[in-house]
Amino acid sequence: MYKSKITGLGKYVPDNIVTNNDLTKYMDTNDQWIRERTGIEERRWAVPGDGNTAATMGVKAAKIALERANLTPKDIDFIVFATLSPDYYFPGSGVQVQDMLGCDTIGALDVRNQCSGFIYALTTADQFIKTGMYKNILVIGSELQSTGLDLSTRGRGVGVIFGDGAGAVVLSRSDDDSDILSNHLHSEGKYASELTVKVPGGENPPNKLVENWDPEDLTYYPYMNGNYVFKHAVTRFPEAIMEGLKANNLTPQDIDLLIPHQANLRISQFVQKRLRMKDEQIMNNIQKYGNTTAASIPIAMTEAWEQGRMKRGDIVVTAAFGSGFTWGSNIIKF
Ligand code: UT7
To answer: Which homologous superfamily is 180-333 in?
Structure first.
């Protein structure tokens, strides 16, 4: 079996900074509530007409990752793209990346696992590298969420949390000790309705939207049972991390950097306390970007690397929990 190595990291976020105070223009909220409950201070939102979509932001992040990996689009054998906010209902964004980057007619796969999307995407890429099928895979997490939020007071429990942006990694066949040591993935579909966007879908196809739409039905906006998701998250995050560590005979003290999905600073702090980890062992940047769903881990990973917090040989752990419910972890020897 081959080993997998992260050889390039890149991120892109829109220039437009939206502070908590800016949100008071749209809804009844305030900076104190948002900071205390989530840790978020500002987020990036694309501006209509600026050209930012899940696909184009993913391409921008991917170009940086490729350059840092010293590779060109022609060197890429496969694309895995994670998003909940694709440009089209179908096809997925992976094929747009193939075209925009000018890759050969390689395979492109979209992953729809929302908050844990990047963990599922990296795990998928790892399998293709490990079996020897591919040598260089582009793994992208990208989200344009600002255009799909209910920005009225009615939607404030969700609207203040989410941000736009993209992160990308190049995963390559490793020629040294670097490897993805383990991946653990889970789901519990009985909770699917606790964090969901139901429309459009099989039960509510677009023609119903046009012909027979009930204006009181707001199921085209994201719905989140925040408290409920929070309670599950603080259990599943530590569980997924410990499952990965145990599989590798490691303890939380062996982690050089934990990169949790940036869902809520309170969740990350809870996990840190529970696993008795030091501040320098955990990456938090939700303060600047909000929750960017499938993009949050690759954005945070890229930023950690840029800041010198992730060095070759380090044990880097990712973990996520979210819609589905789905959750998981990757244990990486960087
Ligand atoms: O990434 C995917 C997974 N997602 C998560 O992991 C998110 C998990 N959940 C959370 O992060 C938190 O539950 C939230 C941040 C979403 C909400 O925080 P909370 O502490 O659970 O607040 P709450 O929903 O219980 O709301 C408390 C109060 C309510 O008012 P009343 O009923 O107590 O009068 C809300 O109406 O805060 C009110 N509220 C707000 N007030 C000001 C809700 N949203 C806002 C807001 N600004 N934006």
So the answer is: Thiolase/Chalcone synthase (3.40.47.10)
